[in-house]
Amino acid sequence: MATTLTSAEEAGRCLATPAAYTDEARLHEALALLRRESPVRRVEADGYRPFWAVTRHADVLEIERDNTLWLSAPRPVLRRADVDAALEEQRARGGALRTLVHIDDPEHRALRAVGADWFSPKAMRELRARVRELARRYVDLLAEHDGRCDFVREVAAHYPLRVILSLLGLPESDFPLMLRLTRDLFGQDDAGRRRGEGAAAHTSVLADLLGYFRELTAARRARPTGDLASAIANARVDGRPLSDADAASYYVIIATAGHDTTTSTIAGGLEALVRHPGELRRLREDPGLLGTAAEEMIRWVSPVKAFMRTAAADTAVRGTPVAAGESVLLSYPSANRDEEVFDEPFRFDVGRTPNRHLAFGAGVHHCLGAGLARMEIQALFAELVPRLAEVGLDGEPAWLATTFVGGLRSLPIRYALR
Length: 418
Prior knowledge:
Layout: H1 8-14, H2 24-37, E1 40-43, E2 51-54, H3 57-65, E3 70-71, H4 81-92, H5 107-116, H6 121-142, E4 148-150, H7 151-156, H8 159-168, H9 175-186, H10 198-222, H11 228-233, E5 236-237, E6 240-241, H12 244-275, H13 277-285, H14 290-301, E7 306-311, E8 315-317, E9 320-322, E10 327-331, H15 332-335, H16 370-387, E11 388-393, E12 398-399, E13 408-410, E14 412-417
Parallel strand pairs: 2-10
Antiparallel strand pairs: 1-2, 3-7, 4-14, 5-6, 7-10, 8-9, 11-14, 12-13
Helix pairs in contact: 1-2, 4-10, 6-8, 6-16, 8-12, 9-10, 9-12, 10-12, 12-14, 12-16, 14-16
């Protein structure tokens, strides 16, 4: 893919081009151009409804914090117009996915409370031993591959999903199904991952996920087992149980967002360490940097590429008028490389502080599982870094085509373990 952009108009269309996210040099060239020349840019791209691209950290943060003016519904993520239409039709029939990402206050606040205790600092302390055990298991598995493997396929895609299954209380026998369904969900823009073409393929993935979790809801209501799945199935909001669709939607956001985002960060974090051996050496020599290293990996990868917000009233962003009903796209990879906020934003620095990245969002929609993601990343690299006698690329990495959640789809490495 060419890496020379000639206009802000062309740069803006990159945000509605899934393949742009497979070429990091071109993507960041486009985002830097937008930050510099047109930080609030109207984008009209074939196959998508128009939107305003917001690329500066300060603007993204301000919009995230004003959840009265800027609503998640009815357009929380960027999708092709045909998929939007199919989901709107599904929503009208009462069978659409309705996760925390899709819902605004006051309903959002009430639903978020259902799972909040399971992601509290106390809950994370109780889960830490299991996370460390799984991290050790997957680092041990590297020894079985004779010093060469695709790190995404063998470690990064599996470890976070095992953690989520443990939290939900799902059997390991369901692991292959959940891995396939989450890959199908976030791979709809990628030719090597998608289930099929068009809106029907996307809605069929959602139907399969909702079907699986409806069965889980019925099972946990009939026989609660003291896990997060049981808490969701038997939750009551304003004295009423969650509908089957809302309970199933809650499982979907926990299982998918808690898996693919962390997978992308772990894979991208290792790739960054491989490409910056001095930072790997710093981390090996000073394990006390694990916390800041994890934050830098999260900033560097920015696994959630964008969320959308819709204006509830006429307003303006950085002086640019945005009419009621128009949508903005919040670009997290751009905000997290903003030269106004980060010193040398294109330098990977495991000791970076402060690190005011927005990869977990802000305001009422701040990621519910941020603490768990941080713990998983730190646990994995706490096991891996001391055991890596050497590591390097064993071929070219490949990225997932997406406009929503993604990162490396392949990371071939060669290595020697201590």
